[in-house]
Amino acid sequence: MKSNALARARLIFCMAVWGTLGLFVRNISVSSQELALYRALLALMMIGGYLIATRQRISIKALGRELPLLFGSGVAIGINWILLFEAYRYTTVSVATLSYYFAPVIVIAVSFLLFREPLSLRQVLCFVGSTAGLILIIRPQGLDSQQGKSHLVGILLGLGAAVFYAGVILLNKSIRNVDGVRRTLLQFVAAVIVLIPYILLTSGFHLSALDAKGWISLLIVGLLHTGITYCLYFSSLKDVRGQQAAILSYIDPLVAVVVSVTLLGESIAFSQLIGGALMLGLTLLNELSPNPNPTSNPVPAATLPQGQKKP
């Protein structure tokens, strides 16, 4: 009982921290792909230190055929981060985060179309209702203005991030021989391998452009929002049920909305709040299955931070 309570407290902490990600990203004046690289590198050092301290080893030989899946999911995580960070630049943190939480709906659709997984009435309700909620978030009125166009671009970037995170979720379903922390470490390695040459060929490196506030924010994003919280998250999943983890994951977007409105001074329309509540509520309803499966715990991206729907 005590282990479950402690695990839930850790998950609540992780979700609350992930909900503040946009607040710190706004202070880091480098390109989104450069920020994704630094986040992965800092998290690699933190998670690598954790594995060394706990004397956990990674056997490359034991990975076998799952190594390509790990590499592919790592690349998807890197692209997912880039798109999410870009979404923050074009629209509000709350709208970008809510758009990003469309990922589970994408997973339901892809699983049905590609893997022929049967759809229950609950899943159909989730898909239709979440799509309606997304339409309310987009708010078609006013998109002919410059601000409206920027807002739409931000939503599309958030949805793009959701697509790649859905890919991470689907790829991870086939990875069975690597546990959470080791899996995350290897995925970050893959992200770094891809991001370094991409940045060299595109934007280049601009760490020198960061001021003191930017450096502090970068360290917080890499070490706290990724390294520390990922270790806490994965170490806690074994002590909670899948439904508990699913419910707690919705602390992330709720905190993001509060941070966006109160600390960043960004506005959010009532219709967007209704749309976000509709999308999140129906997605949560879909996850609360009658027979919880402890092994189907969500994986962060953010993402995966950002709880269940984010790398």
Walkthrough of the structure:
This protein is mostly helical and 311 residues long. It has one domain (2-309). 72% of the residues lie in helices and 0% in strands. The chain contains 14 helices and no strands. It has helices at residues 2-18, 21-25, 32-53, 60-63, 67-90, 93-100, 103-115, 121-138, 146-172, 180-201, 212-237, 242-248, 251-262, 270-287. Helix 8 packs antiparallel against helix 14 (270-287). The radius of gyration is 18 Å and the shape is globular.
Brief overview, please?
This protein has helices at 2-18, 21-25, 32-53, 60-63, 67-90, 93-100, 103-115, 121-138, 146-172, 180-201, 212-237, 242-248, 251-262, 270-287. With 311 residues, it is an all-alpha fold.
Number of DSSP-assigned strands:
0
Secondary structure category = mainly alpha
Largest sheet: none
Count of domain modules: 1
Low-confidence regions: 291-311
Number of helices: 14
Q: What share of residues is helical?
A: over 70%
**Quaternary structure annotation:** single chain
How would you state the average pLDDT, rounded?
84
Radius of gyration: 18 Å
Order of helices and strands: HHHHHHHHHHHHHH
| Terminal CA distance | 29 Å
Mass-distribution shape: globular
* DSSP strand content: under 5%
Keywords:
72% helix; 311 residues; mainly alpha
Helix and strand layout, with pairings?
Elements: H1 2-18, H2 21-25, H3 32-53, H4 60-63, H5 67-90, H6 93-100, H7 103-115, H8 121-138, H9 146-172, H10 180-201, H11 212-237, H12 242-248, H13 251-262, H14 270-287
Helix pairs in contact: 1-11, 1-13, 3-5, 3-10, 3-11, 5-9, 5-10, 6-9, 6-13, 7-8, 7-9, 8-14
